[in-house]
Write a structure and sequence with these properties.
The structure is a homodimer. The first copy, chain A, is mostly helical and about 130 residues long. Chain A has a single domain, classed as Orthogonal Bundle (Arc Repressor Mutant, subunit A), CATH 1.10.10. Chain A is about 60% helix and about 10% strand. Chain A contains 5 helices and 3 strands. Chain A has a 3-stranded antiparallel beta sheet. In chain A, a hairpin with a 5-residue loop joins strand 2 and strand 3. The longest helix of chain A is centred in the last third of the chain and has 32 residues. Chain A is globular. Chains A and B meet through helix 1, helix 2 and helix 5 of A and helix 1, helix 2 and helix 5 of B. Chain A binds a DNA duplex (30 and 30 nucleotides) through helix 4. Chains A, B: InterPro entries: HTH_HxlR (IPR002577), WH-like_DNA-bd_sf (IPR036388), WH_DNA-bd_sf (IPR036390). Chains A, B: Keywords: DNA-binding, Plasmid, Transcription, Transcription regulation. Chains A, B: One of its GO terms (molecular function) is DNA binding. Chains A, B: It comes from Methylobacterium bullatum. Chains A, B: Pfam families: HxlR.
DNA sequence: TCTCACGCTCTCCTTTTGGTGAGTACAAAT
DNA sequence: ATTTGTACTCACCAAAAGGAGAGCGTGAGA
């Protein structure tokens, strides 16, 4: 069983790798895709694109490739014309989604707190000369 | 108690704000600083810099300001010469650290899996040609 | 007097990120 | 023959991220 926060008792090498991995998966588009595929199950390229709404083809392709490389999604190519490609999460992808769940919940619960903090921080600027 | 994955039952507006907030806090340096302050308690600027090891002054200052604005850290300035400034987590910062804990654990536990997946993905490239 | 330490801030530079728009291959529909 | 739809790929460009190094203010110590 792991400690409350793992990096405290890990090797520095492992820590570095973990940081690297975190840096890769804690990406805006990755998290979005993770969430959507978790919800919808299996989607085609354009369906995914529409579900996200604002992503460019380039970023979608790129992020999906990275996720595939990291073993988070499975890409199924149906050899038909016009092309049909479907994406779904692997178990690893699902487990990452579950791990991020706590962060989603935190964000939802503390949205107002953060906004208040920002107003407090930004507000008292014009303390006129 | 919230649902397994919150965004499914949230307003689209809230969802957008959550995405925005996630995009801000799911930052490499933010996560690092969060973790270190959680471990060490209260640190000075240069102590923090040394603890992270690779961060530039610019990024450290910038990230700390963002975190302060978002109510994640408290910045205490001691009016002495040379200057002394200490940083520590707020309760909100600690709760975010706790939320990210699941992601750290995931990264630690699945490091090898991801590396294997990458090798499998990268390996079979030179298939003739 | 000169240097050092600290916590910045500023400028300059390179790298990375991300968007736009075009092109591709091919079969079915028009 | 032309258009349509799909899932890309590529070239080009703008913006942002991020690093290196200089400067600042000032009191203690050499």
């Amino acid at each position: 069983m792991p400690a409350p926060h793992p990096p405290a008792d890990a090797d520095p090498r492992v820590e570095a790798l973990v940081h690297d991995l975190i840096g890769r998966v804690a990406d805006k588009w990755t998290m979005l895709i993770l969430e959507i595929l978790e919800e919808k199950g299996e989607l085609r390229f354009t369906e995914l694109s529409r579900a996200i709404g604002t992503i460019s083809q380039k970023m979608l392709t790129q992020t999906l490739r990275h996720m595939e490389r990291d073993g988070l999604v499975i890409r199924t190519v149906h050899p038909v014309v016009p092309p049909k490609v479907e994406y779904r999460l692997t178990e690893l992808g699902q487990s990452l989604g579950a791990a991020f769940c706590g962060v989603w919940i935190w964000a939802e619960q503390n949205l107002a707190t953060v906004e208040t903090a920002r107003e407090t921080f930004d507000g008292p600027l014009p303390s006129g000369g």
